[in-house]
Amino acid sequence: MRIHSSLQKRRLAYLPRLPEILRSLTRLVPLFEAENHENELPLPVVQLFSKTIDQQLLRFVEGENKTHRPLNVGVVFSGGQASGGHNVISGLFDALKLLNPESKVFGFLNGPAGIINNQSMEITAEILKNFRNLGGFDLIGSGRTKIESPDQFQAALKAVQGLHLDGLLIIGGDDSNTNAAFLAEYFLAKGCKTCVVGIPKTIDGDLKNESIEVSFGFDTACKTFSQTIGSILTDCLSAKKYYFFIKLMGRSASHITLECALQTHPNLTFIGEEIAAQQKTLKDIVRQITDMICLRAEKKKNYGVILIPEGLIEFIPEVKTLIQELNTLLASSLPHLKEIEARPKASDKIEYIIKKLSIPSQECFSLLTQDIQLQLLMGRDPHGNVQVAKIETERLLIALVSQALAQRKKTGTYVGNFSAQPLFYGYEGRSCLPSNFDSQYCYALGHVAALLVNAKLTGYMSCVTDLSLPVEQWGIGATPLIKMMGMEERNGELKPVIQKSLVNLQGKPFAIFSQERDKWILEDLYCDPGPIQFFGARDETDQIPLTLEYEYSRHTHLSFSHTS
Amino acid sequence: MRIHSSLQKRRLAYLPRLPEILRSLTRLVPLFEAENHENELPLPVVQLFSKTIDQQLLRFVEGENKTHRPLNVGVVFSGGQASGGHNVISGLFDALKLLNPESKVFGFLNGPAGIINNQSMEITAEILKNFRNLGGFDLIGSGRTKIESPDQFQAALKAVQGLHLDGLLIIGGDDSNTNAAFLAEYFLAKGCKTCVVGIPKTIDGDLKNESIEVSFGFDTACKTFSQTIGSILTDCLSAKKYYFFIKLMGRSASHITLECALQTHPNLTFIGEEIAAQQKTLKDIVRQITDMICLRAEKKKNYGVILIPEGLIEFIPEVKTLIQELNTLLASSLPHLKEIEARPKASDKIEYIIKKLSIPSQECFSLLTQDIQLQLLMGRDPHGNVQVAKIETERLLIALVSQALAQRKKTGTYVGNFSAQPLFYGYEGRSCLPSNFDSQYCYALGHVAALLVNAKLTGYMSCVTDLSLPVEQWGIGATPLIKMMGMEERNGELKPVIQKSLVNLQGKPFAIFSQERDKWILEDLYCDPGPIQFFGARDETDQIPLTLEYEYSRHTHLSFSHTS
Fold first, then answer.
1. Does the CB of A429 have a partner CB in chain B at under 8 Å?
2. Best residue in A3, A7, A240 to probe B by mutation, most B CBs within 10 Å?
């Protein structure tokens, strides 16, 4: 049993504002946008999703007032935590109760495994009142099990039928929502009434497309990381003696790093997508950092802050090739992993594998420190891939930059002192008290999910749009999950998956960043946003992410707003 | 030039509340407490401080209104950042201007080196308005240079005389305030009018005694670390798959760790002072963690959070002995350091030194991972000691606990999964936006410093007491720096220094902690205090540290309050 802090108690009493249109909740009906996306989708998607292929984008508009039947809806958290999850549930709960007070919400425990093992609890008003507007997924827990095998699909069917569910909310990222699409199709094929609805969750910000402006949790995570980075920047400028190499969570995409850079203005920021586009090598990156350090040393500045996205390492083409070779070599079907495990000494493990690599990959592998080499040989993620998060890029870069600076010192081209601190922020931003933005966004997403189930719509993702407008003017609708699908290799097989969104190098947020960043190298234009505030002026408490503001504030991309 | 965030702009406009008595600022006069502490002090202190030995504890009381002459006062930041430093300066500035608008404040740049090198700037109202209530020491920078040699003392004398300083504020920790005491004595001996006043600064909380209830910066740092720990606890409980080993800054003393444990309730917390008192070994500590993990695994809980104070490692008696032996062996006067540096291979370095150690220290050294062994052989701090902060205790414990769990798994006494994440928080808490408590405490400390200089009092530390009462009832006074002195070994010599305060195992905060902690092992009574709030209800924004509340709320220790 958690103990609530005084601030948590205050947040429990917070009432999220709602889009104006949701005040007419009981009268809302879907309005479909006539369009045909079948031709745009890959053939395997069209073939695999024959039951849901014709779904159309929709928005909700006011219709006639009518009475609604009671609904039973299940929810599950899938994957890493993101702030706002509890508000998706409270939004769903409040909307369902408004539609019909006999409606019920069930939570599956500890992620999709709870569906497969049929472990659930009813979420009552009494329980929920202790979780409203709070961070974490601890009301019902989360997990990373995937519903993939025929047995698991069958077990899921049994579970939702056992609870007579009208709907199942899958609160997850790209993979979990891919799963949701398959479940929706499967349930329809089995004549099961349970509508599957996806909710866009991930702090990484990579679940984003023309219908989804941002995933929930991104705002709170970026604000929390920016608070810390801002504080480190101030510290750096006060003591003037350290270079902080800060790695930020976010798997492949660099959305978090871009947002935090825009909020805090560190001296140097890497965006993985740009590294890939410019075909930069590890040596190039080390040179870029070293050049900056030398330039600053000339100005007697032996301090600074460098932001590194978690996914940087795999965006470097030569490293990408190396990782692909390792992924193939270390596949469970081959003997190499066992051979490595059988060797107790680190140097023997490395020696064994290095001979199996291509010549360029051997060179790249040799550049790495032994720690990193071992990290690359260690355990895989559930997709069978190298665990990028375990690679301590921040320490690798410090080691390589130190060597490079020592070289330059010998040739007299560097005269400063280099003292570096590696930092990594990730877990710190996943379960914080949700910002007002995430609290309100999630509360609205939950309402929309209730409307989708009520309208018997399945295979949709709940959408709230026009997020750069005041909450009251937000639009609500839904987009078919399959519309987001593309083909990707997973465990060596091409599979339909919801596409991860990478940082758009042609987009406005990146344009603003690349316009500003040159000044940040030598001048210390550091900005410290401070901790998230929940009370006081709304322009302080209800700020939206800068990337969202820059991207949407002028023109609205796809708008469900009733005011537009 | 910094860019102010919207929250920083709002904080610039914040008006710290002041103790009621400071409203009569221009009428305040010192009232000395008659006491003789000469007999209680070590003889070298009495001998070294012949000019300042008779100073008495004092408090300020209302006297007659009179006019005051203009004063010139210098300030310097010494050592690590702590939130509130800028408010000491703004408190000093505002009080001086109130006493006489012709008064001036000068800031020495980048720490005590700025005094030695006579680098300073005048701090005007125009400059100061951009730093009020903001974190960091970036207005004038900080540094760790010590004023120690006769030349340095002479240079300092020249600097303060050059600026015609009536006072010099040294904002620092135990070492810097020791320095302040020597400077006060030296200035008096040289017939220099400059009064030296110390300000108790350190996030570590170890500058604390019967006159100093808490050092500034401790509150903001602990609240910031507790925000992060609280968020990690929620994350831990949501995903249920990691053990987080969190190391917290704070050098030797475990005040920060104790405060954060009281605020957040992690499953296991080590207090260095207790480890030392109970003569625990590294093996004992590893066993204690392993026992807890096994107990929790029986309840199917394969997750948890463990707090580790930065100084833990040196509190373990066997490690302490090892470190002392290493400190002696690696002294610059001996050839061993060079011998080690000359060996490129890590294993050769270790082999060389291990033979020089005592048998128990050889055993202890062999327990450590190679990384930690190398960290112990690396660079010293300015006092010539092993750099405890560089020892990655959190990673060492994870490695040792993993081994121990693997052993227990073999014997069937452990059936869980162990996945651990090392975390270290320190730099993140030093330069944050100061809490209201630190903002107000520092603003008052600055006022008191102005009063001390105005009363021509030197060798004192500014004191604000009764901090568990509402700000209006806080007491103000000062305590002679030499009263805090004891003898300690520095670089092999016994020297008078201001005593570091360790966690009092007989005190009320520790008693409450040790009463509660058993429950925290198995039950997850996690508490998430969330980010510091600056707006809204005062019982949220103006909370004081829990250790301070527990220690002082019932009886006031030494009180200068005009209401008591």
1. yes
2. A7
A143 CB within 8 Å of a chain B CB: yes
Model confidence over A106-135: pLDDT tens digits?
A: 999 999 999 999 999 999 999 999 999 999
Query: Closest by alpha carbon to A240, among B45, B226, B356, B111?
Result: B111
Chain B residue closest in CA terms to A229: B428
Do A330 and A465 reside in the same domain of the chain? no
Chain B environment of A171 (Cβ under 8 Å): none
Using CA atoms of A513, A518, A521, A525 in order, give the dihedral in degrees to the nearest 10. -60
CA dist., res. B153 & res. B187, Å (int) = 9
Same domain for A298 and A210, yes or no, is no
Of A6, A138, A429, the CB nearest to B540: A6
The reply to whether B557 falls in a domain is: no
Tell me which residue has tokens 């052989």. B377
Q: Could you count the other beta carbons within 10 Å of the beta carbon of residue A383?
A: 12
Residue of A nearest to B539 (CA): A6
CB contact under 8 A, B536 and A535: yes
Which of A528, A534, A543 is the best residue to mutate to test the B interface, defined by the most B CB atoms within 10 Å of its own CB? A528
A262 in the same domain as A174: no
Residue corresponding to tokens 């030695």: B116
The dihedrals phi and psi of B185, each to the nearest 5 degrees, come to -60, -45
Question: Is residue A547 a contact partner of residue A321, using CB atoms and an 8 Å limit?
Answer: no
Answer yes or no: is B117 within a domain.
yes
Residues of chain B found within 8 Å of residue A537, distances taken between Cβ atoms: 10, 535
Residue B345 sits in a domain whose CATH number is 3.40.50.460
Task: Provide φ and ψ at B386, rounded to 5°.
Answer: -55, 140
Closest CA to A87 of A406, A480, A439, A332: A439
Asked if A530 lies within 8 A of B428 by C-beta distance, the reply is no
Q: How close does chain B come to A1, measured CA to CA in Å?
A: 6
Are the beta carbons of A528 and B433 separated by less than 8 Å? yes
The verdict on B282 and B408 lying in the same domain is yes
ipTM of the complex: 0.95
Which residue range(s) make up the domain with B156? Answer: 6-33+67-217+434-498
d(CA B391, CA B257): 17
What is the CA A488 to chain-centroid distance, rounded?
A: 18
Q: Which positions in chain B touch A143 (Cβ < 8 Å)?
A: 239
Whether A132 and A248 map to the same domain: the answer is no
Residue A122 is encoded by which pair of tokens?
């009813």
For B98-221, where are the E strands, in sequence order?
104-108, 120-122, 142-143, 167-172, 195-200
Residues A330 and A361 in one domain: yes
A429, A454, A476: which is the final residue of a domain? A429
What residues contact residue B2 under an 8 Å CB cut-off, 6+ apart?
A: A237, A524, A525, A526, A527, A528, B130, B138
Query: Are A157 and A290 within one domain?
Result: no
Task: Please indicate, yes or no, whether residues A442 and A385 belong to a single structural domain of this protein.
Answer: no
Q: Report the CATH number that the domain containing residue B490 is assigned in CATH.
A: 3.40.50.450
The string of pLDDT tens digits covering residues B321-330 is 998 898 888 8
Residue at A423 is within a domain: yes
| pTM of the predicted protein model | 0.95
At which residue do the structure tokens 């993979």 appear?
Answer: A175
- Dist CA B283 CA B305 (whole Å): 19
pLDDT attached to residue A489:
80
Q: What are phi and psi of A520, to 5 degrees?
A: -75, -20
Q: How many domains does chain A have?
A: 2
Q: How distant is the Cα of B40 from the closest Cα of chain A, in angstroms? A: 37
Q: Would the pLDDT of A488 be above 90? A: no
Residues of B with Cβ-Cβ distance to A240 under 8 angstroms: 110, 141
List the one residue out of A351, A323, A528 whose CA is nearest residue B81.
A528
pLDDT at A1: 61
**B532 within domain boundaries:** no
CB under 8 Å, gap of 24 or more: what pairs does A346-353 form? Answer: A346/A370, A346/A373, A346/A374, A349/A374, A349/A377, A350/A374, A350/A377, A353/A326, A353/A329, A353/A377
